[in-house]
Amino acid sequence: MACGLGGIVDREICRAYRQVCRTAVRVFGADLEPQLMLRADVKNLLRRNELGFTKEKLLSELNNACVYLKENVVQVKYEESRDTYQIQLREDLQGKVIDLRTKEDFLAEMERLDERERRRAAKKERADKEGGASPSGEGQTTGK
Questions:
Q1: pLDDT in tens, 79-129
Q2: Minimal CA–CA distance to 78: which of 88, 89, 69, 70?
Q3: Rounded distance, CA 99 to CA 85, Å?
Q4: How far, in Å, CA of 48 to CA of 34, rounded?
Q5: Residue 66 contacts residue 19 (beta carbons within 8 Å)
Q6: 3-class SS at 99?
Q7: Dihedrals phi, psi of 9, to nearest 5 degrees
Q8: Measured distance CA(71)–CA(140) in Å, rounded
Q9: Domain boundaries, the chain
Q10: pTM exceeds 0.85
Q11: What are the φ/ψ torsions at residue 79 (nearest 5 degrees)?
């Protein structure tokens, strides 16, 4: 009995895969695109099993995926009229709605994080070019 996983016929794997799909439906609600993407990605990983996981490891990872989705994924929607983002918490997460920062604040914070990362990368690159010298200048002599 195949379960739509392209030749995978193990009942426990099929059951665990279907549980991931059901969890995705609960987590993403009417947002079909992430549901379908998740389903396709999991299906491809199971078909290929490039890491050579045992059946027990696959079952464990599928279970972990369900737990991760339930505990770490929420839907965020942009409220254009108020220029804010809102997190729509599922009923199992107490059904509350939390306002986030304005779009501009959010984008400014992302830009600050990107700039900080660019500076770190440039600093590391300079240090690598100088032959591994410390970015802080330790161990360098001035020639005085």
A1: 888 888 877 666 666 655 555 667 787 777 778 878 888 888 888 888 888
A2: 88
A3: 6
A4: 21
A5: yes
A6: strand
A7: -115, 0
A8: 49
A9: 1-73, 75-130
A10: no
A11: -95, 95
